[in-house]
Write a structure and sequence with these properties.
The chain has a single domain (2-207), classed as Nucleotidyltransferase, domain 5, CATH 3.30.420. Helix content is 44%, strand content 19%. It has nine helices and six strands.
Length: 213
């Protein structure tokens, strides 16, 4: 069984995010990668005014360098959408995963609607289930005493003194590398989130559920 893990980077605002970076990879339940893709969304990225509000706007020169090197592909949003659908169909993928999936799902759909005047409302192929590795992590790690100790010892806590479940913190715990810093680019983040998925699935496969459950 194969899955796709997807991650986006956005501009505009948290409430109305528009996607300029889409990374995704085809993986199995062990986290093995079969295909991976990194796209910069030309429709958004080339709009200088829109990109001024990108949270990681300082990374724009890095993106240009990686595009020149062929490490990322600058491509129109709907060409990326067609490629995503082709990869889903070819690999018989039924479940797409993201960490904090509601955000990525909303960002992709809002970008689609923004660029088409709402003529095309959804990014994912019809019938695709989207699942959230954030929800999986909370279920698997909520009673894990080692993770709790790790968070409290390192002050990985929310304002309400609850354990954090960001991808960066979870990956630091799983990898044993407390100096790890999330890159906050699409594909790089996918490649840590697929490990989070594999860990959670191995601990308890029943945590893999639709985001809407």
């Amino acid at each position: 069984m194969k899955f796709i893990v997807v991650d986006t980077e956005t501009t505009n605002s948290i409430d109305d995010p528009l996607t300029y970076d889409i990374g995704f990879a085809v993986v199995d339940e062990t986290g093995k990668v079969y295909e991976k893709y990194s796209y910069v969304v030309a429709d958004i990225f080339l709009d200088k005014e829109l990109m001024e509000s990108a949270y990681f706007a300082e990374k724009i020169p890095q993106y240009w360098e990686e595009i020149k090197k062929g490490e990322r592909e600058l491509k129109g949003f709907f060409n990326i959408r067609r490629k995503f659908k082709e990869v889903v169909n070819r690999n018989h993928v039924a479940i797409v995963l993201a960490h904090n999936a509601r955000f990525d799902y909303r960002a992709l759909n809002l970008t689609s609607r923004f660029l088409t005047g709402s003529k095309v409302k959804y990014f994912l192929p019809y019938g695709t289930v989207i699942a959230d590795t954030l929800k999986m992590s909370r279920e698997v790690l909520k009673d894990n005493e080692t993770y709790e100790e790790f968070c409290y010892n390192n002050n990985y806590l929310t304002k309400r003194m609850c354990k954090k479940f960001t991808a960066e913190v979870i990956y630091r715990f799983l990898s044993g590398n407390n100096d790890f810093e999330e890159e906050h680019t699409g594909l790089a983040d996918v490649l840590i989130e697929k490990d989070i998925f594999a860990y959670c699935y191995k601990q308890n496969p029943t945590t893999l559920k639709s985001m809407w459950e």
